[in-house]
Amino acid sequence: MFFTLKDLPVSESDRTNHKLARLDKNENPFALPAGLMEEIREGLSSIEMNRYPDPSYKRLRSRLAEIYNVPEKLLITGNGGDEILWLLYAAFANNNKPILTLDPTFSEYYHLASVFGAKQELVGLVKNPDSFSLDQDLFLKKLTENNYSLVLIDTPNNPTGMPVDPSFLEKVLEVASCPVVIDEAYAEFAGKSFLDRLSMKELPENLIVLKTLSKAWSLAGLRLGFAICAKPISIKLSQIKSPFNVNVFTEMAVCKVLEYEEWMKNRVESIKYTRDSFIKKTNQLKGWKAYPSKANFVLVEHSFSEKKILEEMSRNNIKVKKVKLGGYPDKNFIRVSIGTEREMDKLLKVFTANDRII
Fold it and tell me: Averaged over 278-284, what is the pLDDT?
């Protein structure tokens, strides 16, 4: 199986139109609070832009360690989670051993496999009437019978929103003889992290937990991601990463934003409430099926013309992702990022316009 995500086109004028509902990139719809923005503006005066960043990023790593309750020495920071993934592929992917991951999953995994010339083996998620599931026995069987260079599991999964059972992840770590990446880009919306099950004094040597501030923290534009990993992997990633991969502005701004943890949690709860309401309302409409999600997006199946859906979205200044699941070529899917309540109501009005999109 294989899946692709495609933007539904919107005119250039719409890109700067504040009425455009941007529900295609899993961004947080809430801007930072005014008081925090003022603090960041004031912080600009303290930045020595003629100087390189501190290559150890001690201040930044210390704040992240405090927020996520992990030892500072286990943290590797990067220019978004994408750079951390690039480092992992550079460090471990090779032509002799394939990479094992889910299908569907984060599209960047496929892209990086192509860039690094790495083969992939995919374990397809099973589409049930009301949810998606993972064949855990098949995944573990593959791990037992084959040698892999890297295992990547995103939880909640993109684009289905399906969380992966933590007890299964523990079994994967026990069986795998290679690094295992648990990608938690959306974990805040699931309400729990795999880190909660771990003793940091006994972190598995093959574990990498990938985190980002792009989603729950509303910092997609600043590009800050990080990994929590045991010392052997941390050392290897440090040896190949750029010494100045996070700029001084991002470091300053992130340290200030991390002081607003309660604001972040409140916004996450608001998004979760809107998400669950959207799923319920969508499933009351004929021809539409919203799958359960523990992320800040929802996978929606529909029985209408893709072309007319595209036209209707564009006409209403709405952007979503069109999704093609390789195992289900006869099914039509879109991935909807959770926006404001007003944006979701706007989308639901399009969903109810069956007479125009059949």
Answer: 97
